[in-house]
Amino acid sequence: MTSARQAILDRLRSSGADDPAADSGVGDPAAEYDQITRGYLIRHHEHDLRELLAERLADYRAIVHDAPVGELPEALLNALREGPYVIPPDLPAEWMTGLADRMVTEPYDLEAVAGVITGCAVAIAETGTIVLDHGPRQGRRALTLVPDHHLVVVTPDQIAADVPEALARLDLTRPLTFISGPSATSDIELSRVEGVHGPRTLEVFLR
Fold first, then answer.
1. Residue 109 belongs to a domain with what CATH number?
2. pLDDT digit string (tens) for 114-130?
3. Of 142, 124, 111, 150, which Cα lies nearest the Cα of 54?
4. CA-to-CA distance for 12 and 137, rounded, in angstroms?
5. What's the whole-number average pLDDT of the chain?
């Protein structure tokens, strides 16, 4: 039987031999990704994804709010701390009703704000993970890494059951940020410290 190492070397030596595009360095990562054979379940959950997401988010020490459309602005207002909050310029106006005097948009000194309010690209129910691709309603990557308090709004259509389903919805060529609870790390004695690599507090508002 050919060893795994030998198989890899054989593939490297033969790569591009029958593929003109490979010689020119031109490839399509998205097409190659779609062609991968997957012999596993894409979706393990069919019902109550919102409830499952809320449960898993709480497991990761995120603060979860039930915030239907009409109640979202008030829920956001009640969560704000002292100081301004920075938002992406394309955040929906209906989310911000009554909050205009507390909001600033970029360019802004991120170290001078109390927190940030954004949307997301996908939320994974199985793992309690918020995924940002820094597209609409999300702003640039630094916007969600520097402020100490991150408020995220998740709409029902953004909830994916499992990781494979979430990945299928994402553009894998974009800069992706996966958030499972507040930023945290621990030392060799397992002393947990939050807020080292990102926001110390994560609050998720489920519409």
1. 3.40.50.10420
2. 999 999 999 999 999 99
3. 124
4. 42
5. 87
